[in-house]
């Protein structure tokens, strides 16, 4: 099913491209928050198992994808700005659930800490409570490439680190996607990496302390960058937290291979709709070529 697309104005400051997958049989809506350098296309695999159960909302950050033509890019956007955008979209689309991926988890936790009245549950994929040594090495290696707008080496770095467990097709798509980015997107990512490396990581624990809705943290068994162990540090702070490990998967979870897609589907639907079974025959799965995994 094709989504209904729209440009939504946020606080008279940003114009955000959105995709709304409507399901006449669904009574709940879920919004998906993507990671750095990503667009709505990065959730192509995830929408396939969510749309039969929910209304699904995707969006591009103001600096990325189909939003970037509608915004000025003189100043980088902070994670607090991204959290406010998410809160506005939650109200605009009457959202009940949130699902974030990777560094989209930062804005999601900040938003949830403000206790939006509509939200019932949230899933935080591939996000951890601290910056460990592999993640720090990855981010520090990327700073010079981003500052120089070195598209070739940014693509190589992503594919050799957090993306190393992706299929070769997706690695090629990653490289093509990174090569097409505008210079302001590299400036935004450089700002974001500096913010991550210098911020007080305890702010995420403080956010978790303030969140009242149930949270599910999902991490890949092989993900050394946002590891299972580091994610479980949230257990001491999030009062209603659950944790799930996707076996034989790295950072990109449901994009990496059919079994990981199936297991991620089971974990998410089991948490969001525990009374329902989860459909799908994994042996018949074929990945879409239209997804951009970053």
Automatic annotation (TrEMBL):
Q: Which Pfam families match?
A: Abhydrolase_1
Q: Which SUPFAM superfamilies match?
A: alpha/beta-Hydrolases (SSF53474)
Residue stretches making up the AB hydrolase-1 domain: 29-258
Does the record bear Metal-binding in its keywords?
no
Decide whether keyword Ribosomal protein is in the record: no
Assigned keywords, A-Z = Hydrolase
Q: Which GO terms label this protein's molecular function in UniProt?
A: hydrolase activity
By its UniProt entry, which PANTHER family does this protein fall under? HYDROLASE ALPHA/BETA FOLD FAMILY, PIMELOYL-[ACYL-CARRIER PROTEIN] METHYL ESTER ESTERASE
Protein name as it appears in the record:
Alpha/beta hydrolase
Q: From which organism does this entry originate?
A: Pseudomonas frederiksbergensis
């Amino acid at each position: 099913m094709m989504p209904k697309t729209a440009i939504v104005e946020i606080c008279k400051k940003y114009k955000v491209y959105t995709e709304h997958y409507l399901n006449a049989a669904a009574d709940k809506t879920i919004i998906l928050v993507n990671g750095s350098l990503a667009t709505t296309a990065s959730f192509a695999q995830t929408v396939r198992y969510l749309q039969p159960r929910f209304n699904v909302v995707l969006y591009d950050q103001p600096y990325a994808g189909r939003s970037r033509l509608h915004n000025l890019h003189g100043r980088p956007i902070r994670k607090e700005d991204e959290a406010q955008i998410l809160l506005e979209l939650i109200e605009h689309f009457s959202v009940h659930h949130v699902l974030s991926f990777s560094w989209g988890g930062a804005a999601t936790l900040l938003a949830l800490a403000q206790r939006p009245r509509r939200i019932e549950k949230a899933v935080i994929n591939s996000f951890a409570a601290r910056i460990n040594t592999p993640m720090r090495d990855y981010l520090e290696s990327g700073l010079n490439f981003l500052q120089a707008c070195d598209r070739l080496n940014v693509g190589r770095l992503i594919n050799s680190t957090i993306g190393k467990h992706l299929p070769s097709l997706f690695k090629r798509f990653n490289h093509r996607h990174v090569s097409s980015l505008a210079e302001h997107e590299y400036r935004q990512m450089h700002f974001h990496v500096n913010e991550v490396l210098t911020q007080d990581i305890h702010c995420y624990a403080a956010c978790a302390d303030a969140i009242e809705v149930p949270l599910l943290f999902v991490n890949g068994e092989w993900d050394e960058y946002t590891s299972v162990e580091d994610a479980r540090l949230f257990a001491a702070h999030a009062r209603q937290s659950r944790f799930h490990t996707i076996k034989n998967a790295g950072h990109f979870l449901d994009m990496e291979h059919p079994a990981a897609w199936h297991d991620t589907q089971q974990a998410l639907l089991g948490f969001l709709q525990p009374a329902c079974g989860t459909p799908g025959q994994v042996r018949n799965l074929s990945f879409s070529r239209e997804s951009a995994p970053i």
